[in-house]
Inverse folding.
């Protein structure tokens, strides 16, 4: 496919990296020459410097022959106009835009993006995607990471193992024998600063952070086996009243079980806007680091504190104070992936990287053919790839034990005709199967090679 990615920031760069790695012809456009140079120096892409909304820039980027355009610049308006120009001038078939302003997404304006008005095929809202991720973490508070795969039939769970975990010091092969009906596989282990794909005889130890891939119906049982519970959510304190905080509070208010929400926002203007927009949430104006304000928000009685301000330092330091005051669970938004390793020492139970979440949601909407979704772990240390086995793929018709998976890759699950299969050495992969593969960053290229299809397929 010929794809134009507009915006060479972190989101655009990551999208271009994934798509160019799948043998697509990718052109990246940005008005910052340094960002364009970084993309062309590190990726197999063509770079064009200029404003993406300008027709002559899109023409230089090859819009006349493009199959798809992804508008992911920092400006909503530039993204919208870019899609309009791509449609009206160059007749680009598929257009995706990242929009941050929530007003554009309100139901009364749903007709705005129809082809007869502002022709955008898919609108991605980072704030809504992040809010959904926050709600997932709250729903499973014993996980530090969770992501859906296979259209919701399977989940990747990130779990930190405590001293009371009942399956410590047990070889993974023995776990498989003990829980033979459990459709779950440990695909990644972080021990200290090292993330690795475990071998069958590897054991798990207290302090390990593991990634488990499980059929969704077995999620609760999987959590129990690793000593985790899912307590009922009754009280939540949200720190940050911006778009993400508002979206999280609205979602909590709409849950069938009643959740009492209190919000803290430093900006008076934002606090007043949040108070007007929310129905049952109590909004407090002030600094989330203020002990008196946290006490007024009844942090000691809260089941969880959610940090969604636009400042990483606040999002990482407030949990320390909240935990000291008695709050058992802290979920933080962390923009800088290099800070993630500090989350555990600071008492952060789960974190969300908005860039990774946005990239994953965009890729999920544009996948056709072999790769359907990609989810990045940590600071791009590993990826979980969902792909379809095509007839010309090296995987088709082969038994798992005979496939030369790289050392840092594991087959996590197989979906065949709607049924989830936990793979083993004797599993034969068939054309049409959907597979999920865990791969360390250094082995992603080898996994992509396994997923390659013959040239004649196109």
């Amino acid at each position: 496919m010929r794809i134009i990615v507009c915006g060479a920031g972190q989101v655009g760069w990551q999208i271009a990296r994934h798509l160019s790695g799948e043998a697509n012809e990718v052109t990246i456009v940005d008005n910052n020459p340094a960002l364009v140079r970084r993309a062309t120096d590190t990726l197999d892409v063509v770079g064009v410097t200029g404003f993406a909304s300008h027709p002559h820039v899109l023409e230089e980027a090859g819009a006349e022959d493009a199959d798809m355009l992804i508008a992911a610049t920092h400006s909503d308006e530039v993204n919208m106009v870019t899609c309009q120009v791509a449609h009206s001038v160059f007749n680009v078939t598929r257009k995706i835009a990242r929009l941050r302003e929530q007003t554009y997404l309100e139901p009364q304006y749903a007709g705005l993006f129809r082809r007869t008005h502002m022709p955008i095929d898919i609108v991605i809202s980072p704030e809504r995607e992040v809010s959904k991720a926050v709600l997932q973490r709250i729903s499973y508070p014993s996980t530090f990471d969770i992501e859906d795969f296979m259209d919701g039939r399977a989940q990747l769970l990130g779990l930190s193992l405590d001293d009371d975990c009942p399956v410590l010091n047990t070889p993974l092969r023995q776990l498989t024998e003990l829980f033979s009906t459990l459709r779950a596989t440990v695909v990644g282990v972080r021990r200290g600063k090292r993330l690795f794909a475990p071998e069958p005889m590897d054991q798990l130890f207290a302090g390990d952070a593991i990634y488990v891939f499980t059929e969704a119906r077995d999620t609760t049982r999987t959590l129990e086996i690793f000593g985790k519970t899912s307590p009922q959510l009754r009280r939540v304190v949200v720190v940050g009243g911006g778009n993400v905080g508002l979206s999280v509070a609205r979602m909590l208010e709409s849950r069938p079980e009643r959740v009492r929400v209190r919000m803290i926002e430093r900006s008076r203007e934002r606090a007043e806007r949040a108070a007007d927009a929310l129905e049952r949430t109590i909004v407090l104006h002030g600094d989330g680091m203020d002990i008196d304000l946290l006490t007024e928000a009844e942090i000691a009685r809260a089941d969880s504190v959610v940090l969604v301000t636009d400042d990483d330092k606040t999002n990482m330091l407030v949990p320390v104070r909240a935990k000291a005051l008695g709050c058992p669970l802290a979920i933080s938004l962390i923009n800088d992936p290099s800070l993630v390793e500090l989350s555990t020492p600071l008492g952060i139970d789960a974190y969300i990287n908005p860039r990774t979440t946005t990239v994953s949601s965009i890729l999920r909407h544009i996948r056709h053919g072999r790769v359907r979704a990609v989810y990045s772990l940590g600071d791009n240390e590993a990826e979980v790839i969902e792909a379809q086995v095509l007839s010309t793929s090296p995987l088709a018709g082969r038994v798992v034990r005979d496939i030369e998976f790289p050392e840092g890759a594991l087959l996590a699950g197989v979906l065949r005709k709607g049924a989830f299969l936990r793979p083993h050495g004797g599993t034969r992969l068939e054309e049409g199967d959907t597979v999920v593969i865990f791969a360390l960053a250094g082995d992603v290229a080898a996994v992509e090679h396994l997923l390659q299809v013959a040239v004649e397929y196109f």
In short: The first strand starts at residue 2 and ends at 6. The radius of gyration is 23 Å. DSSP finds 13 helices and 22 strands in the chain.
